[in-house]
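Minutes, project huddle
Topic: does the predicted pose make sense with adenosine-5'-diphosphate bound?
PN asked that the exact inputs be recorded in the minutes so nobody has to dig through chat later. Recorded below.
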Amino acid sequence: MDNLPKNAIEIKNLCKTYKPQGKTPAKEALKDFNLVIPRGSFFALLGPNGAGKSTMINILAGLAIKTSGTAHIWGHDITDDTRAAKRAIGVVPQELNIDPFFTPYEMLEVQAGLYGLKKSDRRSLEILAAMGLADKANSYARTLSGGMRRRLLVAKALVHSPQVLILDEPTAGVDVDLRRQLWTYVRKLNAEGVTVLLTTHYLEEAQELCDHIAIINHGRVIACDTTKNLMGQLDSKRMTIMLVEDLAEIPASLSGFDAVLINPRELEFNYKPSRTQASEIISAVQNAGLKFSELATLEPELEEIFLQLTNDSDQSGGP
Ligand code: ADP
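Predicted holo structure (tokens), as shared on screen:
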């Protein structure tokens, strides 16, 4: 029987308000934030800039203090059991800050020392090799390219063999080859049982890699599901048509659509934009001889975020 926790991370009612500074007013970055990350999942935290992703990660990593609520990592409360909680995660930060006077090998050894790992338990060279940095183990970090620095930060996060690996927008500004290489390795870690949490504002990246996606906006989780279910949800729209005259029943010519007569003057259609165009529905309604005064399509918040994310990644040349 294993004693492994069911969930790698559990966040309940987490709130974070940054205090006002000078003329900058207080900012509620997380509002009643709830999230459960199943053990073993490859989980994407997706949201536009400013949504609160880094704030959440910084709280988990002990770099920011929550205002209220609770968070558990691998069953350990981040406030009551900070050491154990921190030991269970490895965080790859967004910034490429690396001490230029250490070699990659030294850097991993220092990190291992910080976690109190005995020499015999250290795997610095093995991790560097896995990240394709074996031949750079003893070079000064300042001679490493941006891509190599990114891999070195992943290596550093893995030194203490954390059960949960958190990557905070690791591919921002990273070239395609490196991105692929990074994902190959992270996928392998995930296949070996490491739970991976990735923040990104690239929908395509989340969709391709992750089995679960949470979408956050304005400090709240607005959707959280398996990637399959969520993508299905995004491909769902509703159109409401207000009729000029009472309708007793839906005309047979509209039977091919998912139409519901809400009341004698209101007809509702649920459709998948990937399969049906709104114009097809409108033509069918007109061809059925129905006159309408108003027509509205519902843009759920999810859809808006989706569009926003898609535009973001279009503009920044995302994957
Ligand atoms: P994301 O990582 O999704 O881009 P952040 O967590 O960085 O979002 O930011 C969430 C909100 O909190 C933003 O409005 C941001 O301006 C604000 N914020 C982030 N860090 C600080 C800070 N140290 N002090 C004040 N406000 C902050």
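Observations noted during the meeting:
- Residues 176-191 form the longest helix (16 residues).
- Residues 18, 27, 29, 47, 49-55 surround adenosine-5'-diphosphate (CB under 6 Å).
No decisions taken; revisit at the next huddle.
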